[in-house]
């Protein structure tokens, strides 16, 4: 395992994206435990894209405009749904203290869908993973799987860190309704912009 891979993976995971935003929103609204569920869901949502790139299915999305566009607009719709969910009472940033397994499962599922419905994630893995596998590797599949698993572990740890920071700020936010309203609108607008950017992207 190269140091370059670890550093690159950490930088990629630290960059704010829809998964980071979702984990932060859940941490601010529902606390640390819920943010861990969000982080876990976002991490598990990486699995389909990682496996698709490893077995070469990501190339299909690259070659087939219809397949890519279909998944892309499903992703757009879900990002817009997340924007609406954050704005409404009881959504991702709802302040309810429901810590039941069913509630945690819903949070994790929403996080997973954010990544599952992102077609660019599979293309990212298709371009990202092979760079760190030596050309003379007789069977690259186990090496690719190991790199994907480590990337997921880094993602989970990073997102839990983001969630912990958000949870620490929760008491401050809850005690100031105007601040919470501003933050909720900002997160919703950001998810809306992410959806718009995905919709307008050529590939």
UniProtKB/TrEMBL annotation:
Stretches that traverse the bilayer: 6-29, 36-61, 73-91, 112-133, 145-170
One example GO MF annotation: homoserine transmembrane transporter activity
Membrane topology reported for the UniProt record: Multi-pass membrane protein
InterPro entries reported in the protein's UniProt record: LeuE-type
Subcellular location as annotated: Cell membrane
Pfam families hit by this protein: LysE
Keywords in alphabetical order: Cell membrane, Membrane, Transmembrane, Transmembrane helix
Recorded GO CC terms: plasma membrane
PANTHER family the record matches: ARGININE EXPORTER PROTEIN ARGO, HOMOSERINE_HOMOSERINE LACTONE EFFLUX PROTEIN
Similarity comment: Belongs to the Rht family.
Protein name: RhtB family transporter
Organism: Pelagibacterium halotolerans (strain DSM 22347 / JCM 15775 / CGMCC 1.7692 / B2)
